[in-house]
Write a structure and sequence with these properties.
The structure is a single chain. This protein has helices spanning about 35-45, 110-125, 130-140, 140-160, 165-185, 190-204; strands spanning about 15-20, 30-35, 50, 55-60, 70-75, 85-90. By secondary structure, it is of the alpha+beta class. The strands form two sheets. A four-stranded mixed sheet has the order 2-1-6-5, covered by helices on one side. Strands 3-4 form a two-stranded antiparallel ribbon. A hairpin with a 5-residue loop joins strand 1 and strand 2. The radius of gyration is 21 Å and the shape is elongated. The two termini are about 25 Å apart. The relative contact order is 0.11. The mean pLDDT is about 95.
């Protein structure tokens, strides 16, 4: 991204708005302001740190609640006067207890797919007892592949012989089991999205 000294600090009298976005779901979590010191602290600590206009000091998000924002990437806009920060939230971002300071209105319609993909990845690593996903992973790739095949057939049958609710239910089962299958090969939904985007670009 643009280096810190190339940012247009003068336009906002030393402050730049910083939009924080969930690194998995793309949900807009909050807006804060940074000066050069806050941005440097963010980079150094790996956690989002703002300049508090009310307290007139550096403010690490979650310094009291523990609900920090772990930085994954920082981008500047084309005018170099606004930052977009991709972060992994540790707990709710809003002081009211919601995931986003903008409420559910800021939640992208497909955001849950990212959350589910991340949850499947955690299940693969942690293997909690009693989890259906754990049971699938431990059954092995052949069993998971079989389930994907079964759910694919059931989805197709629902499409031609059942109502919309049945089709949506079967499609949900198919997507879930496909995420598990991808994970057994070390892949994710993002990898599939990349292939789709590349095909779209080639198709024009």
């Amino acid at each position: 991204m643009t280096s810190d000294d190339e940012l247009d600090w003068a336009k906002g009298a030393g402050l730049i708005p910083a939009i924080v976005q969930h690194c998995v779901t793309a949900e807009v979590l909050m807006l804060g302001y940074m000066n050069a010191e806050a941005l440097a602290a963010t980079r150094a600590s790996g956690f989002v740190t703002f300049w508090s206009r009310s307290k007139q000091r550096l403010w690490k998000k979650g310094e009291t609640s523990g609900h920090v924002l772990a930085v994954q990437a920082i981008h500047a806009d084309c005018d170099r006067d606004t930052l977009l920060i991709e972060a992994e939230p540790h707990g709710p971002t809003c002081h009211l207890g919601s995931a986003s300071c903008f409420g559910n209105a800021a939640r992208p319609p497909l955001a849950f797919l990212g959350e589910l993909d991340a949850l499947v990845a955690r299940r693969d690593t942690e293997r909690p007892t009693g989890s259906y996903t754990t049971a699938l992973f431990e059954a092995g790739i052949r069993r998971i592949a079989q389930k994907v095949g079964e759910e694919g057939v059931e989805t197709a049958l629902a499409a031609v012989a059942q109502d919309d609710d049945a089709l949506k239910g079967e499609a949900a089962d198919l997507v879930y089991h496909l995420l598990v299958l991808l994970r057994t090969r070390g892949l994710s939904l993002a990898d599939v999205a990349t292939v789709l985007a590349q095909r779209h670009a080639r198709a024009g």
